[in-house]
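Chain A, query sequence.
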Amino acid sequence: MADKFTLGALEAAVVVGPFSAQTEFKTSMVKSELYEDPRMSGYYVQASWFLTGESRPYKQSAGCFDRVRPKKPLGEGAGAFELAARYSFIDLTEGNGGKMNDYVLGLNWYANNNARVMVNFVYADAEERSQGDTKFAAFQTRFAVYF
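Chain A, predicted structure.
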C-alpha cells in the first residue's frame, strides 16, 4: 500500500520525412511503510519508417501525433505501409516485483484515413523475484477503425 507517490517523466520525439522516433523515461518514487519507499522506473525507444513515403503528422494543439493519412488510400492505391521497431524496459524490483525487457517488430498497414491493420512480433524476457526468468514470444494482430 502506498501513502504517497511522485511520478516524473521525460519524453522526446522527432519526425524527418518518412522516419520517426520517440522515447520516454518514467520513474515513480513511492512512500510506503510496506516496501521501504521503492523507486520504480521504465523507458522505451521506438522508431518507424513509412515505406510508401508518408510522414507521421504532429498535432501541436493537442501535443500528440495525429492519424496517418495515406497518400494513396486503398482504391486509389495500396494505402500506406509502415515498418516499426520498439524496445522497452521496466524495473519494479524495489516494489517487490521484477524486471522485463521486450522487443517488438511491427508492420502497420493504413488502408485509408479511418482503418489500420497492425501486425507485431513481440519477444519478452521477464525476471520476477519469486518466479525466476520467463521468456516468451507472441504474434499479435489488431484492426483499428477511427470514427
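The mean pLDDT is 91. The first strand starts at residue 4 and ends at 16.
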